[in-house]
Amino acid sequence: MTHHLSITVAATAFASAAAPPAAEHRHEVAPPAAMSMQMPQPADTRQLVSFPPMLLEHEMRKMGDHLATLRMIQAALANNAYDEAAKLAEHRLGLSSFELHGAHEVAPYMPAGMQAMGTEMHKAASRFAIEVDKAGRHRRPAPGAGRARGSHPALRSL
């Protein structure tokens, strides 16, 4: 049986917008004619990526580890443990993590766009580790230290 992993190769833009105050919140009802008009959908450019079963399991575990690492980095930053956050970012997500994750084994199965996105993620993690290390050496407390809210200045440049 062939296992498939469908990967969306698309860039996502994040925009922040403030929600209107409750007093200004209202719902507009569109006229029936406007509701029936459909906007054309963009073409689906995703590619189906096939991994051998063992590599698929490995990739799924690796993605779970990436998410767990992000949670550990957030906890370290919340506690002003810059050194720990920088080491986690570099050694588990950054360019130094290629050996740990066996990138050379899965790369041949990935389309070029997927490889480029993965490489850029690892580069961003390494840049983040450098910025967190700098912040730690200057002993600047993280904004919202001890709280789960707020973003760290090192994230803003990435």
Would you mind describing this structure in some detail?
The chain is mainly alpha-helical and 158 residues long. Helix 2 packs antiparallel against helix 3. The radius of gyration is 21 Å and the shape is extended. A two-stranded antiparallel ribbon has the order 1-2. The protein has a domain of 107 residues.
Helix and strand arrangement:
Elements: E1 4-7, H1 32-36, E2 47-50, H2 53-78, H3 82-93, H4 98-101, H5 103-106, H6 112-137, H7 153-156
Antiparallel strand pairs: 1-2
Any descriptors?
extended; mainly alpha; 2 strands; 158 residues
Mean pLDDT: 75
How far the N terminus sits from the C terminus, by CA atoms, comes to 40 Å
Contiguous low-pLDDT stretches (5 residues minimum) are 1-23, 146-150
Estimate percent helicity. 40-55%
- Sheet with most strands: strand arrangement: 1-2
Tell the overall outline: extended
Which structural class matches the secondary elements? mainly alpha
Strand content: 5-15%
The tally of strands reads: 2
Counted by DSSP, the helix tally is 7
Brief account:
The chain has 158 residues and is mainly alpha-helical.
